[in-house]
Amino acid sequence: MIKLLNSELLKTYNKYPLLGIILFTKANASLIKMLEDKAYWNSLDEISGKQIGIFSTRLFDGKSITPDPTQGVLHEMKPIWKEPNENKEILSWFGLDSSKKLPQFVVFSFNTPDNGIHYKRLRLDDSSENRAYESVKIAIEQTVLVVKSNNVESLTEPELLKKLGFRFRVIDVKNSFNRLVQMVNVFRGTSGI
């Protein structure tokens, strides 16, 4: 998986100011359905244009394990997340420690003066196929706006990503607020308020 992704990224990194990748696991069923639908994918490709190259990759599934208790020792039945070794490299590229935090849209560049990977992440909503599409679409639209509204030749990729980071934080705050409102509505409905 890593070798194929590396080769695809190397083929395209000079064609776009920034690259984007959608990271997910098979637990993100709505996002998978959306990505498999050619109409959605073509729409996202049209929105991204020449400003951002988009990739998607499904990571291997992690799992929670409960350690076996040792006889005669007090034991806490707290599950421990076991991340597959195949995921660790790609997750480390983008500052993620586990696939439990997926799905995410990551905008990045590795064509930087310090030869490091610079990135900004946005958590995606995959509660439904439509919400998955909308969250990816918003992330791409915001990235395209940043690229189009700035002189790409005079700004470095880290400067573009810094500007994008602000937009992603605003989206995160809005999404958090919307989730809070949904939880309150559920609570109000179950309690009869």
Describe how the helices and strands are arranged.
Elements: H1 2-12, E1 18-24, H2 29-36, H3 38-48, E2 52-58, E3 63-65, E4 80-82, H4 85-93, E5 104-109, E6 118-123, H5 129-148, H6 157-191
Parallel strand pairs: 1-2
Antiparallel strand pairs: 1-5, 3-4, 5-6
Question: Can you offer a commentary on this structure?
Answer:
The chain is an alpha+beta fold and 193 residues long. It has a single domain, classed as Glutaredoxin (3-Layer(aba) Sandwich). The chain contains six helices and six strands, in the order H-E-H-H-E-E-E-H-E-E-H-H. The protein has helices at 2-12, 29-36, 38-48, 85-93, 129-148, 157-191; strands spanning 18-24, 52-58, 63-65, 80-82, 104-109, 118-123. The strands form two sheets. Strands 2-1-5-6 form a four-stranded mixed beta sheet, sandwiched between helices. Strands 3-4 form a two-stranded antiparallel ribbon. Helix 3 runs parallel beside helix 5 (129-148). It is globular and about 65 Å long.
> Would you identify the CATH H-level superfamily?
Glutaredoxin
* pLDDT averaged over residues: 84
Helix content: 40-55%
Order of helices and strands: HEHHEEEHEEHH
Percentage of residues in strands: 15-25%
Low-confidence stretches: none
CATH topology name:
Glutaredoxin
Task: Give the structural class.
Answer: alpha+beta
CATH class, named Alpha Beta
How large is the radius of gyration?
19 Å
Number of domains: 1
